[in-house]
Amino acid sequence: MDDRVGVYRTDRKDAERTFNALWSSVERPPWEVRQVSIEHDKVAILAPYLASVRTACDCACGGGDFLDLVAERARFTEVVGVDIADNALARAEKTGRYARLVRARLDEAADKVAQRFDLVMVGEVLPYLEDPLGDFASVVDGLTAPRGIVFLAVAMGRKGLTEREVEGARALMRDRGFASLEDRRLEYYALGVVPRRRLGPLSSLWVQTHKTVLVWRAPSAWVGGPRAA
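Predicted structure:
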């Protein structure tokens, strides 16, 4: 049985419509972050690696709500946010946390941002993407500084990332010589139905069974891309 059955993927042409539909309001985000304990658990996993971080790129930043929690534990001098949803970027601007906000899909982020960072955060966006590992690789290769930290959090389950894809992310980072710092499973069960009138092809039952949180460190000689065989 194909373990991707039930997992929705947006093609790149559809991504803008999908995420703008999710972010239908600046004031009412599709996810409440600060009130959800697992979001604080994710921050606690990342926190031990923040001491030397000064610059960060928040990929799929949404409204900046998760970054707001991380920033309370960090000493950032510059944060760049990337998202495709207009209302998400408008909400993120209101936080005052970002030096720059860039409207881009994940596969465009490296070219549009044109900078490398001590910390690259990839929020829970990969399950929505047509080519989650390819888009993740482009972010890692194009945005991570030498010795930089990469933080990846993904929802697992129906309409989440598959175990096969998470193992693909691990292999991708091994091929690039990244050191694994954290690889955690956070128990979390949630289900719901997305109304058809809001999201069209995203409609139907979604189930999250747990979240996977991974943290890596780039090699000191990192220049982007897999190591030569």
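Summary: The longest helix spans residues 163-175.
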